[in-house]
Amino acid sequence: MSVTGSVPFPFITKDGSLSSFQTVGTEQFNKNFGYGDAITGSYPLITSISSDFYDEGYFVGEERKKRLLSLKNTLNYYSTLSPHYSFNSALGNKENQNLRLISIPSLFYGQSIKKGTVKCKWFLTGSLMAELADVRENGELVQVGPAGSTGSGSVAGVVLYSEGFIILTGSWSLHPTYQDKFNVNDSLVDYDPTWYYFMTTGSEGSNSVPSSSFSLDFEGVEKIPTLTMLAKADVGEFNHSNNPTFIEYGQDTTMVTSSNSISDRSDLAIKNIVNGIYDEEDPPLEKITYISKVAIYDKDRNLIGIAKLANPVRKRQNDAIAIKMKLDL
What are the domain boundaries of the chain? Predict the structure, then answer.
């Protein structure tokens, strides 16, 4: 595999093995490529938000509404949050009513859509005509704007946050005079703008509706596992350093050697950095270190990481310090 810019693609170099992709025929392989040439392919990395309109009735053509029916149990499961989730209730039968199903691939939101972040906006010639939002954070899409508009405060649909679906069933007219060819199954008649016509565009086979534009906003949730570790430096611990600045400057640091050993000098004086209150008297010696890094080892004492502190932490002999570290996995 190779990567050019941000788009990866597979490739095979033509050689004596005569290997190639199945999409490259024998004649093309022989004529169009020389030995050493790279034969490239592509990955199906394109995805998009899709929108399906379901008209009244139990069938689409001669088939049942399979995609919608697959969500029946999920919708009924969430009916404890709101009765508007129920697949069949006094509020309507979703299999037999005008309905807009918006499918959002998980690539857009991660593990789930963040509750309370979904907003659907419908613009007419650039001006906001209507807006939905999950103001209660229970999955109900309530019309919140413009203030005082027809249907304001009414529930027009629901959101399946974990599954990535939006179902719109709002049937009231959003404008007193504006009509257009929103119904993909009846492109010869103008209809009132209602929420189940949201996201009607020419790409789904209907006549274009140039006066309308749509906005769908939401945020995603991606949970990152985090490992928390604590490194403790108790009283009297970690108050010695091998840093050359830990001892008084100018001392003979030559190592002591003999016929069978080599060691550091034991008479080196430690530098006293305690601030005294008297100019003519040296303060008592205290071994002070500054912790700037924490080494992380596995159970076999192998170094697997080093955590660096933003600012070194002073460690006196009477101090007990705990350093908290978090590692995103």
Answer: 2-40, 50-221, 226-328
Q: Dig out the tokens for 165 from the structure.
A: 């679906």
The model's pLDDT over 42-87, given as tens digits with 9 standing for 90+, comes to: 766 677 898 889 998 888 877 888 999 999 999 999 999 999 999 9
At 279, the pLDDT band (50, 70, 90 cuts) reads confident
CB-based burial of residue 121 (10 Å sphere; 0-12 exposed, 13-18 middle, 19+ buried)?
Answer: middle
Using alpha carbons, list the distances in angstroms from residue 182 to 108, 177, 261. Answer: 27, 14, 92
Write down the residue that tokens 């009607």 correspond to. Answer: 200
* 294 within 8 A of 238, measured Cβ to Cβ: no
Q: What is residue 235's three-state secondary structure?
A: coil
Whole-number Cα distances in Å, 296 to 127, 198, 232, 234, 302: 58, 54, 12, 17, 8
Joined tokens for residue 198: 């949201």
Beta bridge partners of 92: 89
Give which of 38, 48, 214 is closest to 119, Cα–Cα.
214
Q: In angstroms, how far is CA 25 from the centroid of its own chain?
A: 41
